[in-house]
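Retro notes - structure team

What went well: the batch runner handled both jobs without manual restarts.
What didn't: labels got mixed up in the shared folder, which is why I'm recording both outputs here explicitly, each with its sequence directly above its tokens.

Job 1
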Amino acid sequence: MKRNLDELQAGPHDLLIVGGGIYGAALAREAASRGLKTALVEQADFCSGSSANSLKIIHGGLRYLQQADLPRVFESIGERSTVLRTAPHLVAPAPCLMPTRGILMKSRWVMACGLGVNDILSCRRNRHLDPTRRIPNGRTLSRRDCLEILPMLRTTGTTGAAQWYDGLAHDTERLAIGMLKAATRAGATAANYVKVRRLLLEGDRVTGAAVEDRLGGGTFDIRAGLVINAAGPWIEQVLAGIGRPVANTAPHLALGMNLVIQNWPVTTHGLGLQSTRSSRLYFFMPWRGAVLAGTYYREHQGPPEALRVTDRDIDSYLDAINSCLPGTAITRNDILAIQAGIVPSLKPARPDREPVLLRHYRLVDHARRDGIEGLLSICGIKYTTARGVAEQVIEVAAAKLGRLIAPSTTRRDPLPGGEIPDWASFRRDMAAAHADVPAEELERLLVLYGTEAKDILASAATLTGADACMRAEVLFTLDEEMPQTLADLVFRRTGLASAGRPSSAVLRVCAETMGTALGWTNGRLQDEIAAVENAPTLWQAGCALAPDGTRA
């Protein structure tokens, strides 16, 4: 995956996709694999905006069963199975618990009925899955069994718990990177740090975009038969470049925040817990030796880049977290990382209320809505369903282009690194072949890179020193995955910083390896390290560069 701006300019392309989050990446993979000449541009780094904020849960749609939304239940079940099958290194089943109480909707009996119905509806969920990636049936636990896991609920009215399994992603950013790599291997051209300045309009038809190279400076045009605006919270800014009023898929925005915390009392199960301060349900997912707590929402006003997590946000969320389990006292000192992003909402929030979030993806055909041909806008909301939504959108795009395209294969084709029919055997064979690599380090490489870890380990064997594996990993990502900054590398490629700040020694090794390969000055190297150490949230983790490539 190379950043080739000449190829972007060499069009015309069938499709130009604006936005390199999970939906843009899924669209590019779907389009390129079906024979469409595809280009994708992202104004910052891939997966550095809203897609960087996730609870890492690949949902099976159990929550939609409560709403009797069966189409979404079936969609989520199918797409969860697809992710477990095509990215078995990145996603695995994880047990989740929700305490039961009373005799009504949250009772153990009602929950048992719901889990039973869900198991019936998802009876085909484990077809063609590796045994280690199969989703077990749900069940209810007795009060005694529940209290063995959650003894702090002993003095409450807890009657037991509902237990189910969902997919848990070790790294959602690498899901997007994997889709982009698959797209470029199928012929797509992708580039990060390329910003759309305006859409090209000829009469009533969009014919491409004028873009700016935010690393090298300069502007150029990209021509395409159809532009798909998948810019997330920046959708409206892209549409503003037309110079005419058009329909927006998400006119209202909200801040969403997840915290990576330590010292949470339960690390064996994901927990769905209700705050005693409100009826609000929060989820706590064990992840990389810590716990992800989410999600806090409030209305956001102003442009997306103005997002900031305030002290009030943090204090309010800590109060809510601590009200979920008696005796819990999580403080600011327990926060390892703050994930924040902008998500679409349906309407402005009422005073002292959370915003009402968009529940379904939205696709706008601007020919129908605004009389402007050659432009689609897509607003997605869930990691789990990104691939399936992309399949539907590309069908619409092909029809608008008047093109016959190949059948979709993304439901079955593994992502790069995911060609692993038997995970247990793969881990066992890799451990035997690399007995000299510390077990923890080897496991980290396997769950991030899958079969591509073989290339990293082969490269490490040619290097010397205790940090050979890490330097080989950095060189691999530089060659294969287009990081431009140290933040790109440690937050969105290697995951070294996404669960908390890495040690200064680790940052130094990564920065020096990257800097040597890219010809950084010592000043640039120090700036890159400082930018990672001072990033207040993943949203602000080194995404903005000045035109000369220095940090803005």
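Job 2
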Amino acid sequence: MKLLATAEAMRAFDRMAIERFQIPGLVLMENAGRCCVEDLVAATGDPAGKRAVVVCGKGNNGGDGYVIARHLYNRGARVDVLLLASARDLAGDAAVNFRILTSLRRGSRKRLNIVRVTSRTSLRAFEHAEIIVDAIFGTGFAGEPKGIAAFMISWMNKRSGFIVAVDIPSGIAADTGVAAGAAVRAQLTVTMGVAKLGQYLGAGRASSGEVRVADISIPQEAVVPPKEPAFLVEKSDVTALLPRRPFNANKYSVGKVLVIAGSRSYPGAPVLTALAALTTGAGAVVLCTPASIHPLLVRKLTDVILMSCPETGAGTLAMEGLGELEQRIAWADAVVLGPGLGRHEETDSLIRYLVETIECPLVLDADGLNAVAAHTVILRRRRVPAILTPHTGELVRLVGGESDVHDRFRVESARSAARSLRSILLLKGAPTVTAHAGVAVVNSSGNAGMATIGSGDVLSGIIGGLVGQGIESFAAAYGGAYLHGLAGDSAAREFGERSILASDILRHIPHALMGCAQ
């Protein structure tokens, strides 16, 4: 998996490279600028004859910008460097590279121009640049851009040129992806050494465009993950998880999954969950549902074993069926509990009892989460951590707080909740974040079209199918989120994001699995 660095971790990596391994900061800055130009050329073609505008702040991000301007000039571009600070404000390696650039300008025959931008500076001469380089703020930025920086960010976003951000789009918080104010919307972000968390979270995901990690010669020995690291899950990680079926496999040797789901009000959820578990590769899936919806499901499900259970007057599962449920639980390799179960006092009591007593891996979703929200001690007492799959509203019911705060600070919220509940916590959303024992995994697949009713039921089934096949619970959770997103991406290519249904995601699970097998 790809490590995602915070701003603090990145500073530590840089410091170790410079202090322990004696790599001068000037070398790292030179490599950063050169790599940025190489990635820019790969994306846009030869810059010779093109107009490029490089917008530079006063820190090291601006220093990278001066190196970029020099390399673009050397490749034949006409380069305008727009300074947002006085040359007197520059220090260290940035000042050195600025002096190099000013020396080069003397013989440039007007192909290299350096302009100090103030609130009164006219930018009309630079409006038609084909390449725009954002080198205002780096990963150390926090808060809201002010003054001339905010103005220039807005100016860049209104231009038609190709925007490349150096390290991270200016205005984006490196740790959270939050944009407190104006933020650059780049087509390409060239980030130095290690990808940053904020490039895959919140506004940072949309603002970063394509993210390319530049090797600026920070030694691998200097990149020491923090105590509680974050990673980005990618296709190769999921490919490595998927088990190969032995030639002598039978339906009971490759995953037995029990799905306890559905109610008279929600008969569709158990269909999606059970079929998702089966399609993901489980050999046998048993679906336990209230008796009143059993006749409907018999007509819809030919590949799933159906178990009709006693129900309450509201059409939800009743305690009376506990004995039969326990027999099936003893049979199962994994249990998915919650989708579409509805809310009823007796059903809630049944759910809480099952959460306390089920000893095999357990995926708890939807009304399963609601039933334990006021009784989370039963989650902490489990010998095998449960996999919890809340959206932010359900997370509020489990651990408190505010939904919008959990959404803005997804990694920390997922980590904190996983720790508090002693569980594997999969926080659904954009992006989904899975956390356990301090480790957070950010999902890299999926699209906005997956925000549709029933999508979460499919996700629970996918995770249950993976756990049932023997994949470790934490890996099954983040791997399931990736496959779910990949299936959604495949559905979007067929139908477009606006028209995706949960059943479309379900039908595209085989495409996701085949994609990971390649």
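One thing worth noting from job 2: The CA atoms of residues 263 and 316 lie 5 Å apart.
We'll revisit the folder naming next retro.
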